[in-house]
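Table S2 (continued). Query chain:
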Amino acid sequence: MPAALEGAQVVAVMGAQWGDEGKGKLVDVLGHEFAINARCAGGANAGHTVVVEGKKYAFHLMPSAILHSGCEAFIGNGVVLHIPGLFNEMKNLDKQGIDYAGRIKISDRAHVLFDFHQTVDAAQEAALGELEKIGTTKKVRATTVTLRDAELNGECIVRA
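Corresponding output:
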């Protein structure tokens, strides 16, 4: 562990820009030193690629420290969680031999996003005039109304 982190109970990796700052790489480098790694905000439009021992791993929703067997991954209440995207990431981890069973925890306050939200997002964008369009990624948008797992009868609908 870097000397500056010796004895640290909590370390936060935060960005001051809109992304592409290397946060995912830093989380991966430090991840094996911590029992918990949390993603607290953002959505599937974010992403990072990590290369470990020559293997490439692409992440959009999952905290990259899930690659470390002793680390639990928390997806927090500020995350816009695209369920099909999360399942695709889990399938990719399965294909790459990463055992994440029991190590993924999802806040019941995370914003749940389904494919129909993306369809609505695209329709809203298409209805705007040329000067009003924002160039949506159709992966998450502030104007899209999402659901929260806790709003769905208090039952957790996603289990890892």
